[in-house]
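Why should sequence recovery work at all? Because a backbone constrains its sequence more than one might expect. Tight turns favour small or flexible residues, buried strands favour hydrophobic ones, and helices have their own preferences. The token representation captures these environments compactly. In the example below, the structure is given first.
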């Protein structure tokens, strides 16, 4: 088991990272899907007793990925902020501080369904905002995983998870990458986002991650 696994899609090698992100070495592009920054803050604003510190923890994970892979371009595949109440001062302050630490890094957000409700991040964050799809070489980068003729789609939105069967009735759900000839779906980057269990078919590949290692499901 490794912290990253190479996968060839559309003739290009990408790296599936254990911390639920995808890196395209040829273009030095890092992709993360469904960060949902400020989700816990939105829940607390609604009176739900959820933990503090999720945004800080996710930002720290992102910092570690940037330090390890040194991308020149970071692309968020939708759902950057979770809800309008994610614009809480503490959440935005943490994100502004993160952006200042990486001021020379190009950042793009492809709007997802939650972005349409939450609103774009502040312009002072210096993040380019675009609608899907974003075409880069053979890839169509999207939030929603819809097939696109002539392109391999890299997307998020589904928060895919895979159920591993243990002994007896024991099962374990883990985030996963789900890839076919036409489409690769990333797991949710955010830690406080939940997920949906997927099933495999004969033409699909599944790679699960426990946050430290990523490995293929046989």
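From this structural description, the recovered sequence reads:
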């Amino acid at each position: 088991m490794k912290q990253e696994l190479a996968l060839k899609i559309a003739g290009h090698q990408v790296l599936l990272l254990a911390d639920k992100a995808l890196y395209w070495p040829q273009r030095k592009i890092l992709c993360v899907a469904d960060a949902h920054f400020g989700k816990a803050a939105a829940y607390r604003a609604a009176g739900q007793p959820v933990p503090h510190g999720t945004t800080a923890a996710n930002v720290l994970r992102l910092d570690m990925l940037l330090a390890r892979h040194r991308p020149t371009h970071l692309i968020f595949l939708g759902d950057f902020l979770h809800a309008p109440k994610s614009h809480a001062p503490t959440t935005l302050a943490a994100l502004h501080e993160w952006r200042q630490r990486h001021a020379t890094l190009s950042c793009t957000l492809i709007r997802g369904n939650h972005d349409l409700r939450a609103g774009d991040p502040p312009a002072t964050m210096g993040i380019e905002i675009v609608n899907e799809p974003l075409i880069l070489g053979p890839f169509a980068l999207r939030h929603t995983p819809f097939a696109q003729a002539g392109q391999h789609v890299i997307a998020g939105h589904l928060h895919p998870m895979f159920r591993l069967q243990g002994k007896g009735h024991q099962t374990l759900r883990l985030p996963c990458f789900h890839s076919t000839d036409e489409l690769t779906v990333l797991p949710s980057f955010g830690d406080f986002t939940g997920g949906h269990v997927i099933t495999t078919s004969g033409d699909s590949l599944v790679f699960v991650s426990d946050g430290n290692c990523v490995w293929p499901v046989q």
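A few observations help interpret the result. The longest strand covers residues 171-179.
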